UniProtKB/TrEMBL annotation:
SUPFAM superfamilies documented for this protein: Thioredoxin-like
Family listed: Belongs to the glutathione peroxidase family.
Name of this protein: Glutathione peroxidase
Pfam families from the UniProt entry: GSHPx
CDD domains named in the record: GSH_Peroxidase
PANTHER family in the cross-refs: GLUTATHIONE PEROXIDASE, THIOREDOXIN_GLUTATHIONE PEROXIDASE BTUE
InterPro entries attached to this UniProt entry: Glutathione_peroxidase, GPX_AS, Thioredoxin-like_sf
Keyword annotations of the record: Oxidoreductase, Peroxidase
Length: 161
């Protein structure tokens, strides 16, 4: 199954239609508003601004599974992201990324290894998956890896070539 075939709603409700990203590169990130890694929103927004015109988007996926760090309603999450970090990339509904109720999107993603060979459960907020224009996972990045590191930027640029 391709990620384009997965059903997920937008944060504000209604289908997110991942099929709209066919032919584009997408950085999927499980996000949270009350996490020590939350300032990564700044780097994610910079990536969005830098590469959106070249067929790229960040897709934020709120998750409250890690120490309850995304407790807000959809409206609160959207307001926080917009006013605090100027986020204008799309956000999906809040989902589980691990466990019995893991969203199908993450069921498809967690089988892909990161650079150190890790596969399996999402380790924390802000774990990143780069999807290439063909819908395949190009890379997986540790949650602590800042969005603007050479590894992430290099992978994005390679996927856009």
């Amino acid at each position: 199954m391709s990620i384009y075939d997965v059903d997920i709603d937008r944060l504000e409700g209604g289908p997110a239609d991942l099929g709209q990203y066919r032919g584009k590169s997408v950085l999927i990130v499980n996000v949270a508003s009350k996490c020590g890694l939350t300032p990564q929103y700044e780097g994610l927004q910079r990536l969005q601004q830098t590469y959106a015109g070249r067929g790229f988007t960040v897709l934020g996926v709120p998750c409250n599974q890690f120490a309850g760090q995304e407790p807000g309603s959809p409206e609160e999450i959207a307001e926080f992201c917009s006013t605090t970090y100027g986020v204008d990339f799309p956000l999906t509904e809040k989902v589980d990324v691990n466990g019995e109720h893991r969203h199908p999107l993450y069921a498809a993603l967690v089988t892909v290894p990161d650079a150190s060979g890790y596969t399996g459960d999402i380790r924390w907020n802000f774990e990143k998956f780069l999807i290439g224009p063909d819908g395949a996972v190009v890379a997986r990045f540790d949650p602590r890896m800042e969005p603007d590191t050479d590894e992430v930027v290099g992978a994005i640029e390679s996927s856009l070539s």
